[in-house]
Structure formats: C-alpha cells, structure tokens
Input
Amino acid sequence: MKFTKNGKFTIWNVTTLIILVIFLLFIAFPLFLVLKKSMINPTTGGITFEYLGKFFERKYYWITILNSFKVTVVTTFLSVVLGLPLAYMMRKIKIKGSKLIEVLVIISYISPPFIGAYAWIQVLGHSGVVTKFLNNTFGTNFEGIYGFSGIVLVLTLQSFPLIYIYIAGALKNLDNSLNEAAESLGYSSFQRIYKIIIPLIIPTMLASALLVFMRVIADFGTPMLIGEGYRTIPVLIYTQFMSEVGGNEGFAAALCVVFIVVTLVLFLFQRIVANHFSYSMSALKPMKVEKSTGIKNILAHGFVYIIVFLAILPQLVVTFTSFLETKGGQVYTGNFSLENYRNIFLAKDTAVIWNTYKMGLMAIVIIVVLGVLISYLTVRKKNIITSILDTVSMFPFIIPGSVLGISFIFAFSDKPIVLSGTVFIMIMSFAIRRMPYTIRSSTAIISQISPSIEEAAISLGASETKAFRRVLVPMMMPGVMAGAIMSWITVISELSSSIILYTSNTQTLTVSIYTEVIRGNYGNASAYSAILTVTSILSLMLFFKLTGKREVSV
Amino acid sequence: MNLSVSIQVENVIKKFGETMVIDGLSMDIHPGELFTLLGPSGCGKTTLLRMVIGFNSIDGGSIKVNDKVINNIPVSKRKMGMVFQNYAIFPHMTVKQNIAFGLENKKYSKGEMERRIDEILNIVQIEDFKDRMPDQLSGGQQQRVALARAIVIHPEVLLMDEPLSNLDAKLRIEMRNAIKSIQQQVGITTIYVTHDQEEALAISDRIAVMNAGVIQQIGSPKEIYQRPVNIFVSKFIGTSNILKAKLVEVNNEVQMELNDGYREKVENLSKRAKVGDTVLVSVRPHEFIITEEKDGIKGKVLNSMFLGINTHYFIDLGLDEQVEVIQNADIVDLITPGETVHLKVKPDKINIFDIEEEKTLIEVSEAHEVH
Output
C-alpha cells in the first residue's frame, strides 16, 4: 500500500480502494470500451479511422452536430433572455403571488423535457388544440410546431428556470449598497443595471448557461418526439445503435466519442471562463423588493405571468388530458373519465410504476453512501488516490445519458460481467449519472464543517470511524438528504440512458411515457406523465419542508 | 476661500409603514464641519443619514443644502458622496476603476480625470494598490478606496455610515485619525454616523446624540462629555455613576446631600432647582476623590483593576449602590478589596439632573461654554 504514509491498512484505505474499483468498473471500463470500439476493427484487431471517417464524410451524419449546436445555442440564448429579466423582476419588483411563481418555476424545471415535448405536441402539434383553433378560425394551413422551432420552444421553456434559479440566487448575494454607491456617484437606474448588476452576475450567467448547454445538447427525448426528422447527435446515436446493434457497434461508438469530445470542450471552456471571472460577494443588505406602479408594474406582471404560464403549461396539459376519455387511446372524445388510469393500473401491469420507485430509491441509497464517503475522502483524507477518485467522479458530468447507456451495453453484455437487462445495471446507470452533482454538494457540506469538530470527538475518546459515524455524518445529514431528494427527482425523470438499457422487466415510467407517445396512446402517456409529475411535486414539497426554504440548489 | 455648504434639517418626519421612526427632527450643520450622529443601534441615525442622501424618502419637513430644499432631488443629482458600512467596493473593478467610476459619467477630459485620481490616491495613500482587485485589499485599504471614491467627485457633502465598524480595534483608531485629517484637508461638510462614543469624541467637530429618533443634545465633544443635558447622554457618553441626592440650604447656600450625610456646595444651579428636591447626581469615575477624611461617602472596595496609567475601583456604597472610581496610579497605594474607604466628589465637575425628566439642573455659564 504505497499511498498510505505509514503503510497502515486503515478502513479508509480499504474504502478508497473499493470505491476506486467501482469507478473503474462502471466509469472507466465502459468508456474505454467505447473508445476502443470506435477505433479498432473487430475483425482485424487493428486501429481504424473508418467509423470516425464515415461520420465526417456524409452530410447525413455530420449535419447532426450542426443541428445540435444550432438547437443548443439558440435555446441557451433564449433561456438567458427569459431567465435573466425574470430573475431581476422577481427580485426587484413586488409581483403578486411571487411565492407560488417561484414554486411553479421550480416544478417546470424538475419535470423531464420530453413531457414538455409531448404536451406541446398536444397544444401546437398537427392536431393540437391551438393549431386546430388557428386553422379553423383564420383558415390557415398551420402545420404545427415541429422540428427546429418545436425543439427550441420546448427546451427553452424547460431550461430558462435553471437560469432563473441561478441568477435569482446571485442577485440575492448582491449587496444593495453597491447599487446605492453607484447611485450616489451619479448613475441612473438603467446605467446601474449594465454597469454594476450585469457584470456582477455574468459569472453566474455563464455557469448556468453552460449547465443549460450541457442538458440541452444531451437531451434525447425532445428532438425524438417533436423533431420530426430534425436529427441531433443523441437522436443519431440512438437510432444508429438501436437499428444496428451487433451490426455496427463501431460506428455508434465513434458517434459517442465525437459527442464526448464536444461536451468535454464545452466543460473545459466553462472552467476557464469561470476561473477568469469570479467575485466573492456576500450581501449585508440584499436588494429590496419594491412595489412598482403604472405601466412598469403592468408590464412586469404580464411578462412574469405569461412566461411562468408557458413554463408550467406542459404539466397542466398532461394532468388535464390524463382525465380525458379517448377513442382507442388516441382521439379525445371530449368527455372526462378515469379510463386512462384504469388502463395503466388495472389493464396493464403496474410494474413500471413500482420499478421506477424501487430502482430510484436503490440508486439514491448508492448515491448517498458513495457521495458521503467520497466527499469525506477527498476533503479530509487527501492523497493521490482520493484525488484520482475526485477527478474520475466528475467524468459522468460530461457523458451524455445515451453514451453512458451504450457504454454499459458494451461493458456488461458479455462475459466476464453480464449485467444487461438486470435491475442492477439500471440502478448503476442512475447512480453514476447523478454522481458528480451529489459529490459536489456533499463536498460543499463537509467543507463547511470545521475539522475541529471531529478532533473534539476524538479528544473525548472516540475513534476516527466513530467520530465520522456519530458526529460528521449526522451533521451532514440534513444537507445530504436534501440533495438526495433532488437526485431522486432527476433519477425518476431519466430517459436517455434508460431507453437504451431497459428491458420489459426494468421498464420505468419515463420509458413507458415515451413508448406510449410513440405508439400514439396519448391517454395512457398522459396518465403516466401525471403520476410522474405528482411524484416529483410531492418530492419537491418534501424537499421544501426539509430545508425550510423555497429554493433549490441545482 | 470656503466653498463648503451648510445643511439645514427642518422638522423632518420618517415613517416605515405605520411606525414613526423620526418625528419632527431639526438640526443645522455648519459649512466644512465633521458632524456626527451618535446613538445606540435603532435610534434612527442611519435612517436620517439616508434621508439626507436620498435613499430614504422624506415624509415631512425638509432638508436644505445652502437653504435650497433638496427633498425631491434624486440621489444621483444630489452631489453627495457616501462611504458605506461595508464599503460597497465594486468587486469587478480595480481600485483605480472604482475611483474613476464616479468621474466617468461626467464630462472630464482624460487628463483632468487622471489628475484628480492621482491627487486622491495620494491623499488617501493608496497609490501602490491602484491596479489591484478589491479582494486583494485589506479592510483598511478597502476603506481608503471607499473614501477616495466618494470624495474624488468633489461632492458638496460627504456621508459616512459606520465606516469603521468592520475593522479591528487597532485599525479603527488608525483609520479614524486618517479620516479626520483627510476631512480637514479637503474641508468638505461631512455627516458621520456611529454608535461608538469614543470614535465620535475623537473625530467630530460637533456631535448630535440621538435616541429613539430624537436628538438629545448637539454640541462639541467637550460640551456633551462635560455637560450632558440629560441622564441618557451622561450615561451614553463615557461612564457615569448615578447617585441620589437632596438639595438642602445650609448657611444661605445650596448644598447637595449625598449618602452618609456627605454634603457639598453646588453653584450654577438653574432656577428650576428647588431646595428640598431629590435630584440625580452623575459622577464620572475620575470625578471621585478617595479621601482620608471621614465626612465623605462610606464604601467598601469590592474589586480593583490596575491598568498602569490608573486604577479602577469598584466600590459598594451599601443599599445595592455600586460605583466605579478611577484614581491615578501614582497618587495612592493600591487599596485591597474589603477595605473601607471614603469618597468625595469634585463639585464643579459633576452634573445634576431632576428626578422626573432626568434633565440637567446646571446652568452652563458663559465661562463654561466651549467654542
């Protein structure tokens, strides 16, 4: 054991090793296989650039990168355009019902984007309510919102809440005396916004914009449902992999490599930018919310209400349509009924619901245990191995869900380790995908706790492990549990890796929603969506109760 | 040549919701002086300061600068510089950019701007840090930047809101000396807010002592320390021992009778004082004399604290009355706890207040007044 200073075999060293093995097995090994399959000819065993070349040769393939970038850049830009003024108005102007609005924004943020896609199809699709209304009233031939504009609409409305949450948090840390200082130096309120406020929230804006960028570029469900031929990289990866499993794994792997390179570059770019601008701010006196009057007040209220209504519309639509009667599952008759719920609860196996809860919970247990241990090791037991752990644990941040799914199939379909089709592989994919977020938040929690607390316990006769179990872990728990609930909400909404890894035994709610929509069973899809939405909202309420705040950290 | 402005605050009113915070307050601030608003937290001093600069609206009365009402002039047009409690240095700008910020939206030539910035950097002595970011500065340096940024625009009035409260004790003394000398050098009319009476005494030309939104007394540091107008001021500024006494007439002169029948002649009593009244006597710790004579107030020494330059004694006078007494260390040997001593007061130094309103009964004669 070279990495221990005194060569002793402590429980922490063993733990470090076990976690390292888990990470090697579930992160490094699958990724290595992706890289290998993308560059090794399976028959000759030699290095080949055939697959990567194929991607860049045909426009049919490389256009997907361009498409992904177009969608992502436009969506990110529009999310900032909506999220920034929303955050500013909510912090500066007294908006009626602002507490409810904040909760609604968070709800729209935590629900999976493809539900938004599905709901917007019902509103603005070929036979959407609004589409029909417009065409009937004005005699137009509006085809509905699909393709590029549809994807951008759905993803923007799903992403601006994240920008809002971040910027609202930054504005809270912005001391109002900075504003007042500028005012006393002769600057008007408009000048103050772009001279003081905007420059100070730029780091936060960039950080949140990058998160949006990463989420949007990796999103699979939305372009799949509403894209109608507008193909992005995740869609291409999925279709190539699903249609050519066994046939051309190499090409799918090459696509994954291209995709990872793109996200990696973005990630590094954000790191550089974030290091370049960062200001430590702490507000003695935060900005005050003030009553506004006249046209300014009306415009602010109008803007906030309309934006938030559009953001929450998908949840309203799916909940509403889940209670509508359908003819053959597809066409709404206009009557209310519980038929859809009867279908999914009685006519069908309810396993998908229990699967989701069961696998989600087990994933959370793994996430919490690993998260707490890893953050403890990296903060309190710094050495080379734990630093490697820390770095490897950040990998999943840049691995899109579909790539992770494919890499798991590569790694665990054949001997020596056969896991595909099992509950365990689903759970591990959830846990690994969420790992970087959990570790980051647990690390933040541990860093807040002074080491002298553990030293006090040890001076009173406790062993190091006892100090960890009895003092540190209980102190971390409130924060960790809050983080666990947020992880739970993201895990149960996960689609892009589940859609690749699931079998009939491990089907989840999100997969069911997706497949029902593809089959045209809108009624069932709505009922499933409603169950997922209600679960998420209840979990969110529990989170609020636990933290005592109406805020989420993402 | 004196271009400094005067400020007239006339019957101003401030309400927060239904709560009246300041109800008809008036004061005059003279050109070029450093005027301090002193009072406990929540007394309305910061509220008043923010009314002067315009962050708080004026709900009644008026504030004038050189007899011109400024009630409705927006903050950005009031030509007032402010130094904030937490400095409010812009974290995204260098020291120089912070200082230049207020000049940028006025039409100065580049040369003029540079000249002004260099001048102020020199005055506040931060030339060496001008290219640093604020997070690379110490608290004292940030304070100097905040001061430079406020005065570089040549405001008519400088406002300082508890500017030293975030500094440690030693730096606080250093910075208050710096502020005082910079203020004198620039000669700008300044309103300074603090809850620290020692800081106020050290720095101010005049002090307004405030409590519960009302000005208790305005005067020079010496006036308010030596001749407080009421018990509140007497206790808030420095340490005061409050004793009960009775006014008696002996041999055609008015005397006060303290504990143990100890009597002392009092002069310059106002006409409000009547023989036979019970009054409150405020005695500063160094206005007591520990004496061998047996006709003083009898007390038992509880504790002593030797501080080098002097010694503090805590003396029990019986009946739950305790006083703090300061004696120069070189005068007498240390008195051990438990010993009985006799105390006399310096009659020309002490202050006497009526018991109902706790207002002074001393007539300040021309000879006592300090200019």
User: Anything to note?
Assistant: Residues 1-5 of chain A have pLDDT under 50 and may be disordered. The CA atoms of residues 485 and 539 of chain A lie 7 Å apart.
